[in-house]
Write a structure and sequence with these properties.
Layout (H helix, E strand, L loop, with lengths): L1 H13 L1 H25 L5 E3 L13 E4 L2 E9 L7 E8 L4 E7 L3 H9 L3 E4 L1
Amino acid sequence: MSLLVATMSYQWISNPAGREERALQVAVVESSRSQLTSIIGAVSLEIVDPLSPNRKVGKVYIYPEDQGWAVSGYYRRGTDDRWHPYLMMLGADQRITHLKLKDQDRRLVERAAADPRLEISP
């Protein structure tokens, strides 16, 4: 039994496909961070996402979709701001195809009126 466990562990550790998928996920989340920061336009932005999860704030995930990725998380502009959930859909080229935010910032609401990729709810 221990030989079987050792063999399975070695195969799991030495499998390059798992490392390649993880590297791709990291690249997608880092891309989503920079795009979210650009859209929010805050000087300092705290982000909770699959690379920096915080169970106290909420669950986050990255999930492969047919034509790209779905990334969820939370952000806040500072310690006096509340956490705002977001769901970002990215295409295969890692560009935003849809971003759903729960925020009441006037600038974001105005921007969403002009950008069909953005969906803002209070």
